[in-house]
Amino acid sequence: xxxxxxxxxxxxxxxxxxxxxxxxxxxxxxxxxxxxxxxxxxxxxxxxxxxxxxxxxxxxxxxxxxxxxxxxxxxxxxxxxxxxxxxxxxxxxxxxxxxxxxxxxxxxxxxxxxxxxxxxxxxxxxxxxxxxxxxxxxxxxxxxxxxxxxxxxxxxxxxxxxxxxxxxxxxxxxxxxxxxxxxxxxxxxxxxxxxxxxxxxxxxxxxxxxxxxxxxxxxxxxxxxxxxxxxxxxxxxxxxxxxxxxxxx
Length: 249
What we know:
Layout: H1 5-39, H2 43-56, H3 61-73, H4 77-90, H5 95-107, H6 111-123, H7 130-143, H8 147-160, H9 165-177, H10 181-194, H11 199-211, H12 215-227, H13 231-241
Helix pairs in contact: 1-2, 1-3, 2-3, 3-4, 3-5, 4-5, 5-6, 5-7, 6-7, 7-8, 7-9, 8-9, 9-10, 10-11, 11-12, 12-13
C-alpha cells in the first residue's frame, strides 16, 4: 500500500504537535511545583523545577522567565542579568523579558534603565502583565522623584487591575509625598481591604491621619504599628497618643 508523501508529512507534523503539547503540559506542572516551593521560600528547589521544565521545552518562555525571577529573588544578580540579557537578544519581541530586566534594574537602583525597560514592555501592550509594567515603571519614577509620572503610572496600573494592594500602597506613598494626605488615606485604607497590612502600612496610614490633624484616627494606627514592631510608630504613639497621667493630690 502506497502512502503519499504529503500524508506522511501531515502525520509527522501531527505527531510532533502532540509531543510539543505533552512537553508543555509537563513543563507547566513543574512550574506549578516551583510556585509551591517559592511560597515556602525554598528557592533552590523552585529553581531546580524551572531548570527541569526548560530541559524538556527549550523555548518555553514561562519557564525561562520564572527561572530569571527566582535567580533574582536568590540575589544571584550576575546570573539573572546574564539570562535576561541573552533572552532579550534572542527574543526581542517578548515583552516579559523587558519587564523582568526592569524589575532587576529597579532592584539594583538603576532606575533610569528600568524606566526604559518598562516603557519598551508597555509599548508592546503585553497581555496579562501590562498592570505590572505600569507598577514597575511607577516605582522607577517614584525613586527618581518624578512624582507626577509615578502617580499617573500607579493609577494606570490600578485601572488595568484593581485588585493589587501594592499599586494602591505605592500610589498612597506618592500622594503622601505630594501632601495630598486625604488621597493617601483613601489608598492606604484600600490596601487593608486587599491585604492584612503590615507595620509600615499602619504607621504610614497613621502619619497621613496625623498630617490631617486627625489624631483620634492616627493614634490607633500608631499603636497597631507599634505592636507589630515599628519603632517610629512607638515613638509617635508615646509623643502624641499617651494620655496624661493624673497627679495624686
